[in-house]
Amino acid sequence: MMQNQDLLVFADEKEVMPAGVNDKEETWQILIVDDEEDVHNVTKLVLEGMKFEGRRLSFHSAYSASEAKDFLAQHFDIAMLLLDVVMEDDEAGLQLVRHIRNELNNKMVRIILRTGQPGKAPESSVIIDYDINDYREKTELTAQKLQTATIGALRSYRDLQIIEQNKKGLEQIVQASPEIFRLQSMQNFARGVLTQLTSMLYLGKSSLYLKTTGFAAASQKGNPFIILAATGNFEHMICRTLGSDVPSYVTERIQSAMQKEDSLFMEEYVVLYWQSQDMSAYVIYLECQKKVSEVDRRLLEVFCLNVSAAFDNLNLHTEMDDTQRDIFMRLMEVAETRSRETGYHVRRVGEYAALLARCMGISHEESELYRFAAPMHDIGKIGIPDAVLAKPEKLIPTEFELMKNHALIGYEMLKGSELPLFKLASVIALEHHEKYDGSGYPHGLAGKDIQLSARITAVADVFDALGCERIYKKAWTLEEIVEYFNEQRGVHFDPTVVDCLLEKLDDFLRIRDRFRD
Q1: Measured between alpha carbons, how far is 384 from 331 in angstroms, rounded to an integer?
Q2: For residue 199, with 0-12 CB atoms within 10 Å meaning exposed, 13-18 middle and 19 or more buried, which class applies?
Q3: Is the pTM of this model over 0.90?
């Protein structure tokens, strides 16, 4: 039993959360680990009603080190551990500390050791050998000291959380940098901005990052806001418009900032508003747990200026990239009009190739390159005479030999570029007519000696060619196409790529319907 006379022992108390605390309210999670029931009761009595940073304390109990291990393995949000040293044995508490830090790898939870038998675990050696935050004898731990130790532990836990969240926010921003040409990366960047803001100012977890769909024209400024990133209670609203699912009170707060064209710093929330160089409007909505100080307010304004500049660059890169790819695709369509295929053939081949690439385990980022590189497979046909390209009858041997040159011509056209897209396209142009059994051209490569990108494009190209009507042939039925690929599995085509085609056949048909000639 406890010897401290400053703490009174009351009747058994079963509730683990102070009265009046809503289950949904965000609280500091406290775990009491002690084999004496009275210690649990008195600890809750002393700390009940305390608040730190506007949040109450929520209590959990474990009566042995073994029970605490099981609890901590399932709960990762414990802020503070009030831990007895001597329980099942003389070092049960110390062994639990080692388990928490080394096996659970939990460096966040703050640990206060309490012991009624200090001789069993001398303070000097415990402080040096174990990662704890405080060591107290139960006889010295008065109500005031327990409250003080708790505030110190929670403050330390809060600061560690802020550091960790800052780190995650910065990581998201850094990870977005190599992918700035994709819309998805803009969403990653926005999510990183939210994480960074909420952590560095210790704001609430619920926040929104929005952008208008408007362009430079002033008349476009009334367009709906699109949610680029969101956290907490708003996380499910990403990619939706502001009015679709956002609570009305949030919409009203944001509209107020839009009307004023200025940021709002209120007691319970912050709305950050600014316009970029192209007159797009940006809004960050943050729910606060404390009033933003004047220093923090200035920090927010500077931060938003930097973020605005970053998003201007992201928008510029995205627009440039989309424009380049659109121009490039149109050039491919022009090239295809010289041959017997249609312009939409190249689009379908690109979509098929990207789908097959993902099915083959290629990353999303790289498979997107296939979407734009595969359509260049026949770019070398630009160098083939019209008399050969436009001939409706079957080519004679000399004409076919001339036609085969388009693989080398395409490769020579593309090989000099250092851009990943063109490097991939050059390989596809060169090898997409090679066959798995070695009977293809121009070099008679076989099996895995043919680059995977070319093996994928070969399947995509032939699937589309067989299913489309040309002046020299009728379109094949789906049954005929499937039968052909089964026959040519391991002969013309890579068996694994054929398996992916058959697995994703419904997706192929949807793409064909979407890009019909």
Answers
A1: 16
A2: buried
A3: no
Q: What is the enclosing helix (H) or strand (E) of 465?
A: helix 452-467
pLDDT digits (tens, 9 = 90+) for 350-403: 999 999 999 999 998 889 889 988 988 888 888 888 888 777 788 889 999 999
State the Rg of the chain over Cα: 33
Active-site residue list: 381
Which residues touch 394 (CB under 8 Å, ≥6 apart)? 472
Which H or E run contains 56? strand 55-62
Q: What domains can be seen in the chain, in order of their start residue? A: 28-162 (3.40.50.2300), 180-317 (3.30.450.40), 338-514 (1.10.3210.10)
Computed from CA positions of residues 510, 514, 515, 517, in that sequence, does the dihedral angle turn out positive or negative? Answer: positive
Residue type (1 letter), 120: K
Rounded to whole angstroms, the Cα distance separating 510 from 260 reads: 47
Q: How far apart are CA 303 and CA 290, in angstroms?
A: 19
For the stretch 319-328, pLDDT in tens is 766 666 676 6
Q: To the nearest 5 percent, what fractions of the chain are helix, strand and coil?
A: 55, 15, 30
Please give the DSSP secondary-structure letter assigned to residue 473: B
Amino acid (one-letter) located at 224 = P
Instruction: Give the distance from CA 411 to its chain's centroid.
Output: 36
How buried is 191 (Cβ within 10 angstroms: 0-12 exposed, 13-18 middle, 19+ buried)?
A: buried
443 burial type by CB count under 10 A (0-12 exposed, 13-18 middle, 19+ buried): middle
**Measured in whole angstroms, how far is the alpha carbon of residue 37 from the centre of its chain?**
45
Give the DSSP H or E segment for 274.
Answer: strand 269-275
Please count the CA atoms within 13 angstroms of the CA of 354 that sit on its side-chain side.
18
C-alpha torsion 406→412→415→416, nearest 10: -150
The contacts found for 273-280 with CB under 8 angstroms, 24 or more apart, are: 274/304, 274/305, 274/308, 276/308, 276/311, 276/312, 276/315, 277/312, 278/215, 278/216, 278/312, 278/315, 279/214, 279/215, 279/216, 279/217, 279/218, 279/221, 280/211, 280/212, 280/214, 280/215, 280/315
Peptide bond into 442 cis (omega under 30): yes
Which amino acid does the sequence have at 355?
L
